[in-house]
Amino acid sequence: MKRVPAARKPKPLPAGSEWSFESIDRYHTEIARVAKDYGLDTYPVQIEIITAEQMMDAYASVGMPVNYHHWSFGKHFLSTEKGYKRGQMGLAYEIVINSNPCIAYLMEENTLTMQGLVIAHAAYGHNSFFKGNYLFRTWTNADAIIDYLLFARNYITECEERYGEEEVELLLDSCHALMNLGVDRYKRPPRLSLAKEKLRQQEREEYLQSQVNDLWRTLPAHELRPESRPEHQRFPAEPEENLLYFIEKNAPLLEPWQREVVRIVRKIAQYFFPQRQTQVMNEGWATYWHYTLLNTLYDEGLLADSFMLEFLQSHTNVVAQPPYNSRWYSGINPYALGFAMWRDIRRICEDPDEEDRRWFPEIAGSDWRETFDFAMRNFKDESFIAQYLSPRVMRDFRLFAVLDDDREDKLKVSAIHDESGFQRVREILSEQYNLGNREPNIQVWNVDLRGDRSLTLRHQQHQRRPLGDSTEEVMKHVARLWGFTVRLETIDEAGRRELASEVRAERRRNGREN
Amino acid sequence: MVRIIDRRFDSKGKSTVNRQRFMRRFKQQIRKAVSEAIHGRSIRDLDNGEEVSIPARDLSEPTLHQGRGGIWEQVFSGNDQFSSGDLINRPLGGGGGGSGKGKASNEGEHEDEFVFQLSREEFLDLFFEDLELPRLIRTQLARVTDYKTHRAGFTSDGVPANINIVRSMRGALGRRLALGSPYNARLRELQRELEDVVARYGEDSEEARVLRDEMGKLRAKIDKIPFIDSFDLRYNNRVKVPRPTTQAVMFCVMDVSGSMDEERKSTAKRFFMLLHLFLTRTYEHIDVVFIRHHTVAKETDEDEFFHSRESGGTVVSSALVLMRDIIRERYANGQWNIYGAQASDGDNWDNDSPICRKLLDNDILPWCQYFAYIEITSGDPQNLWREYEKLSGARDNFAMQHIESPADIYPVFRELFKKTIA
Lengths: 514, 422
Known about the structure:
The complex is a heterodimer.
Chain A lengths: L20 H17 L7 E6 L1 H9 L10 H15 L9 E3 L4 E6 L4 H21 L1 H6 L5 H19 L1 H13 L16 H18 L8 H4 L19 H8 L5 H22 L1 H21 L5 H14 L15 H17 L3 H6 L8 H11 L2 H8 L2 H7 L2 E6 L4 E7 L5 H11 L2 H4 L2 E7 L7 E6 L10 H12 L3 E6 L5 E7 L11
Parallel strand pairs in A: 1-3, 7-8
Antiparallel strand pairs in A: 2-3, 4-5, 6-7, 8-9
Helix pairs in contact in A: 1-4, 1-12, 2-3, 4-12, 4-13, 6-7, 6-11, 7-11, 7-21, 8-11, 10-11, 12-14, 14-16, 17-19
Chain B lengths: L2 E4 L9 H10 L1 H14 L9 E6 L15 E6 L10 E3 L11 H7 L5 E6 L1 H8 L8 H7 L3 E10 L9 H37 L4 H19 L10 E9 L3 E9 L6 H19 L4 E9 L3 E4 L1 H6 L8 H16 L5 E8 L8 H12 L5 E7 L6 H12 L3 E6 L5 H8 L6
Parallel strand pairs in B: 8-9, 8-11, 11-12, 12-13
Antiparallel strand pairs in B: 2-5, 6-7, 9-10
Helix pairs in contact in B: 6-7, 10-11, 11-12
């Protein structure tokens, strides 16, 4: 049944599979209108039509329109290209950039339906999430990111000209190895801005260089009064979780430009940090909105049936969740889970049953748009699941938790989707999305200021999980950045300390002894 | 307000730089893969780029992550048989139950090969890296015998065949306008006067007659301006520019006597292919002359060269005589860079080998840029080799190498064309 408002005589949107700029514009206009009716708050939209090859380029530089040059991006490009050319994989559903204006890429190969879908998904779904979610609001600055990337690329190119590509590449390799430990998890960052960045960069260089010499203050003059620095006093006084930050500020032998490069990598890692924390929410949100927006347009009589069929087929593929024993299974599909959860939240708001009232007394029967807005703004995957995953979704997905303890012979099903297991399954799933658990907890513990200036990192073991086998390699990179011996200690759950890795190095500044 | 930007025509290949960096960084591995690639397949295929694979572990980017072991408690979907508290056997190798699969993503380690496509150019660059054609530069500079004519504007003299009609007519028109314009101006003036006079004194008055006479004279003058004059003529100008010779002929000489079995022939074939490929990178145009011989030599086409079966004794000199004759007949005008490659198992009639050496020394090598002899044999050098050895010291455009198995082809090839530091 089509509900056609009497006041509006709708003129159907163009159908067929060929797109044109006019038709994209018309689709966008209608989608924007409906999105506004639903109260989605977005950055202005900039739609860019690109070719498949450009899409692969964008893939390779982690989705950013500008990025500095590095061989690893070339590697990604080659593997994407291979997969694409052999037809093993399609290209991205969409790439959307968290910037202001929000840039959404449409691939020229897409059919008109896909273009409409991508506009709804990326330009309104993701866009509103970027603008609203607290993680993106605190950690990223949509106004400045493109400028910052431009600054980064120019700076690194300049470094390459001045110090040689090899030198810069080695440094970037080392920084990339530590990228996932180069983010502030708890501290709030100051805002980025290009103007400020440029202004401060020079002065920062000089200032930092004078500051790191803290480590050099252990020269003989200080040895005369050793009591001023008691043996047990650690540096840094508090453990530091952001390895790249610590290296940028304190590595004794880095040149100013090297510190700046470390900083660039760190800033970019930080920029992507919210994306990694909000996969389920963000993808689910965008999927929910493209579904809702397009269905609304269909109800208004603007979309052809052929459009809807193609759209629904594509949508169904995206939100498919294969069971654990399927050969297609590769974990929980964030699109599927997210979409199901957002739909469920709306259902709880609009049409709650007795179970929902018991589990979600605060949202059952509330206004769904307000609830949506609140949930979108104030959660990340971990907390979103802990807060909103309902028994019904768990039942629908037939979720169950498996405990794998390497001390036991068998795996144990610790909870399933039943009355006694809902809480537990939800808890485990939420933990599963906690980046703090997924990644090893490694912090800067101490620098031997009075001795060999060696750097000690501490790995706090979680659930007795060991470190992966590339740890030794990464430690070599740390040693390269630090310039002196580095070691990694593992503290197990019982508090025992064990030396996991040690790389001895003593680098001298070539020809320049300060 | 939405902005729709068409980026399709923006610069492509944003990743080119990154790709090049990747290639540079893993040059060693890629080069190894490339040289391995030629063992397995026909060399003709190599022309079309190549898929190479290098071990993924060489290019992994290390990160600090959690490894396998310890306690993992994870949620899976699609429960069809389990109740809380069930014990399950550990799935072996990730198969079966699938509950172990979730961990695979935590490892992020793949021992696979990283496979990617090299473009033809990239492939050949790597393939022939550090190789060069010997004595190439000297010849290019020394023998500038080929000229190419280029258009170079217009000149005022030349042969009638080169007359540029448009230019000439335009010149003529301009000249006529320029020379005729004072007369025309005067004529128009007189015309006005005439009308004035006719109006005042009548058609047949004396004044009118005088004016008409004058106008008649003027018209005659205008008519006398030639329609086209010799200095209007413009000729297309062409200049000759010397062009370095960029054509080469490659002689493939192969022994097909009974002692050359299929395996040896295919080894020879690969060598010739490689040489051909290498020459195509330097020369625009390449002629290939195939000469096969047993006791008599014959020029053949490519297909026959490699495939037809013949056998018998061996007289190598027959082939060299034929090669000499072909050079004299077709390629002796100084416009050709001549390359020769001879493959044989080295088995020759004893008294023929000195003849071969003399032929090469006197009649062939002076014409050739380079002549390479490869002996395909698994045993000791044969008599031809010993005879040729005397040459290799004396002539710097002669080289010889020994190939035992197909695996030697590429190394030997590299040896033959190694870049020499001048």
